[in-house]
Amino acid sequence: MLDFDGGSLTKVATTTATVFDVNPPRASRVGLSSATISACLLIAQWIYLTFLLVTVIGRWLARRRQGQLSDAGKGELDDAVEEDWQRPWKTKEWMALFGLIAMAHDNDWPSTPFREKYNRSIRERWHTPNKHALRRLLHKGIIPLLIQDGGVRTEQLKSWAWSNAFPYIQLPLFRQAKNRAYFEFLVPYPHRGNKMKFLQNLVSNKQGYGITLRFSEPPPAGKIFYSEMNPPCRESSGQHASVGAESAFEALLPFKKDQVFQKAKGGSARQLDSFIKGSNLQRIPLLDSTESVLVRVESKHWSSVDIDEFVYAVAKETMPEISKLRWTAKAVWEAASRELKRCGLIVRDA
Question: Which residues cross the membrane (predicted)?
Answer without folding.
Answer: 35-57
